Amino acid sequence: MLRKRAMNPNREQIENIVREVIASRSDAPSAPAGRPTTARAAVLTAPKQLEIREFPIRPITDDEILVRVEACGVCGTDVHCYHSDPFGLAPVILGHEGTGVVVEVGKNVRMDSVGKPIHAGDQIVTSILETSEACMLSKYNPLKANLCDDLRVYGLLPDEPGHHLNGYFGEYLIIRPGSSFFVVNDMDLDLRLLIEPAAVVCHALVRARNSGSPLNFRSRVVVQGCGPIGLMMVAVLRANGINNIIAIDGNDARLAHAEKLGADHTLNYKNFAGVDDLAAAVNGLTKGLGAHYGFQVTGVPQAFSNLFKCVRRGGGICEVGHFVDGGECSINPHRDICRKEITVTGSWVYNSFEYPNAYHFLQRAERIGLPVKSLITHRFPLDRIEEAFLTNIRQEGVKVAVMVGA
Q1: Helices 195-210 and 228-239: angle between axes, nearest 10 degrees
Q2: Which of 91, 129, 205, 307 is the most exposed place for a label (fewest CB within 10 A)?
Q3: What per-residue confidence (pLDDT) applies to 356?
């Protein structure tokens, strides 16, 4: 029987109540001998404030999975959360580009999201906790579930009593019912860390092709922005048979990396007097016509505006970079869209079923000699996570990883 409590319990008292209720259930599973009862995690408590805290590892239910986190990449969205908490999630355990090892499997969980058996000891990735049944968009068009207002992603779930271990910047993660998850035992740690960002670019490529724009072996394609997602975009284009890729960025080291991943030409926009000169350089590499297609991956509004000048009449643009509101830009509807019949499409996150596509893209990239694992340039332990974030903010290297338990 629970002890009588004050009418207005504080947060700690609420958590104790939840733990006692779970422990008092006759059907509650007990923790296997030898596994820790607590886990450390990096918590964003407010903008630019990360704290290492310790949380109890509660018993999992019959429909959950307990994962020991190995590592997680730092995403640009994590950095935006660090800067300003734009989604109002704090306190929150961030981290969604992660992977780990299965420790416990609820008795009702027998296979992953593509039918592979799952057992303790398997290596696993997960990102999306499916949308609610109330979402009419996903109910009538499952292919558009990524557009649901209540789309929930591990690492972007607010802290709740009894549900603390929600992000990969912690030593353990509990995968809840209704989540997509995948056993990836045949991939090494570095490749597993790249599956989530690979899903982003695979989705963008599908969006571009579904827009009706020409993307084939002879297409001349511009990728504007060579951060981690832009570089991954170059690689996925090359792996899909695009033979003429122009990469644009203001960082020579990242442009050199783009060449390794499949870019045929690189342009540093800082070497040009303005956007017209830059567009002229693109025209010079595309028979004077401009690119057939452009992927905008910078997250900078003005860069989106500039890209219209680099794409030929009848071409297309896919906006991949604006996952947070970066502001507005100006375009000329007549010159930029109507007169040129430009097709503009957006790409938002991905759907859970696109993880297998990303998995196979990374395997193909390895087979054809694209050094995708070279994207991971920095590694920090969990205790130095703030240093990892600041390294990302300074744009040193490319992909920064937090090695939690690897």
Answers
A1: 60
A2: 91
A3: 93
